[in-house]
Amino acid sequence: MPPPVLPTEIDEYRDSHWQRDGEGRVETAVQAERFIERVGFAACFLDSRRAGPSLYVAVCGRRDAVLPRNVQKDPETSLTWMLKDEIVHRGRVYYAKLSRGKAMFLASRMIPYFKTVWGISRRGEKERLSKDALALLRVLRKEWEMGTADLRAESGVTDRKAFALAIDELQAAMIVVPTEVIYEPKFTYLWGLAEERFPEELSQKVHRQIALREIARCFLHGAGLTVRGELARVTGLSRPDAGLGNRALVKEGYAVMLAPGTYQLARTSRTTVSM
Questions:
Q1: Is 160 in the same domain as 235?
Q2: Radius of gyration of the chain, Cα coordinates, nearest whole angstrom
Q3: Is pLDDT at 17 greater than 90 in this prediction?
Q4: Are residues 64 and 152 in the same domain?
Q5: Are 235 and 200 in contact (CB under 8 A)?
Q6: What is the spatial distance between Cα 272 and Cα 139, in angstroms, rounded to a whole number?
Q7: What is the pLDDT of residue 180?
Q8: I want to staple 216 with a disulfide (CB 3.0 to 4.6 A). Which of 32, 67, 68, 245 is the partner?
């Protein structure tokens, strides 16, 4: 579906907050980390056809950025990929495939909220994780960090498709993250435990209602206004959970509801027409 037509004021608000107005274009890993810390969470390679903050769009610095068909020869795509690899290496912000397989960056302050919604407790791992995911996890808890080929061999999950599904499952549960990208002698990822990189953030206990509210707050702060289903699509939340988060913001006066499923920052609502 094409994105909804938003009021001009909201598009300009998003341009400024999501760095798609040409000013402050992201060019280095440090700038990328500052961008992620400011917006709270961001996709890696989503373009203008999908809502939400995106590192690729911030690199392009324009609202209408669209990934080209031949990404190998595109300098903006190449820079985004290079920055992603350097961010993974530096380990200052969280990066993994999260809900629905979305590759996302999380600012440190947002990690506890995402973990509350999507994480799995150690007690619940045997019930909720697949056999292959548990096999990978047993090896990583023993070795702490391992490349893809070695992890496949040690775990016994040698089928490529089965391994990919299992590693994605562990990433979505916020248990495993890529810790390094290696290109020589061949391309591979190193994998490690998320709790090794972000022990304090992942050990925090947050009530689920608070987590939903703060995820909704983070998105609305950068979006200015969210339309029906948008928060769910951007974050991977279910629509009922997204509604709970947005309504909690209305209750505290941070947002106003313009129509069912449409919420706007209270401090900007006076200057924007109703949807």
A1: no
A2: 19
A3: yes
A4: no
A5: no
A6: 54
A7: 96
A8: 245
User: What is the amino acid identity at position 84?
Assistant: K
Same domain, 41 and 95: yes
d(CA 148, CA 258): 49
Q: Write out 90-124 in H/E/C secondary structure.
A: HCCCEEEECHHHCEEEECHHHHHHHHHHHCCCHHH
**Cα separation of 233 and 120, whole Å?**
22
Contact call for residues 43 and 102 (beta carbons, < 8 A): yes
Q: Tokens for 78? A: 């190449």
Considering only residues 208 and 50, tell me which one the structure prediction assigns the higher pLDDT.
208
Is residue 257 included in any domain, yes or no?
yes
CATH number at residue 167: 1.10.10.10
Residue type, 149: A
Cβ 234 vs Cβ 52: under 8 Å: yes
User: Under a CB-based contact definition with an 8 Å cutoff, are residues 94 and 194 in contact?
Assistant: yes
Q: Write out the residue range of the structural domain in which residue 32 sits.
A: 8-110
In a domain, 149, yes or no: yes
- Residues 15, 81, single domain; the answer is yes
- Cα–Cα dist 58/67, whole Å: 13
Residue 227 lies in a domain: yes
Q: Which residues contact 238 (CB under 8 A, 6 or more apart)?
A: 232
pLDDT tens for each residue of 146-189: 999 999 999 999 999 999 999 999 999 999 999 999 998 889 99
What is the rounded CA–CA span in Å between residue 43 and residue 2? 18
Residue 275 and residue 267: Cα distance in Å, rounded?
16
Name the pTM for this structure.
Answer: 0.92
